[in-house]
Amino acid sequence: MRGSLTGELLARCIVETGTSSFYSALRDATDEPVLKAICHRIAGDEFRHYKWFYDYMKRYIAREGVTMLRRALVAVSRIRETDDDELAFAYHAANDPLDAPYDHQRCNVAYASRAYGFYRPVHTERAVSMVLKVIGIDPTGWFGGKAKAFAWKKMRSRAEALRQAA
Ligand SMILES: [Fe+2]
Q1: Ligand 1: distance of its center to the CA of 164 in Å?
Q2: How do the domains of the chain map onto residue ranges?
């Protein structure tokens, strides 16, 4: 689907970035000790998944020679798929009454308005660093700083828009 094995592994890294940042955000947002401990462990697992896919991706970059631009395009396309049916339908299955019809738009807003509200700057910054790393861009450089600031601003405005829509 992503044009190369490098692309497939990169897309996996993006998914693991999303899951590890989400569970970190949830962990840091709750004072409930058991939920906090569970989220902490899951976030660690998700980060290890990322690292595993990242390590294998590096091997395939060497073999396949996938350019930085191509990797950036794969990363952006996978990030945009966050709004597809996967999370929205999971929300529907877990929260809607059995006879309620699935409505993508409604469920997507309901899920995202809850999930994104837990994020703080540290979570988006870490997520941006993980994404830049798989593309091959230094997260600590000038571009990394700009990307982190942009991502936090975007996350805040998206969370606010979703909260109002919900
Ligand atoms: Fe995972």
Answers
A1: 30
A2: 5-165
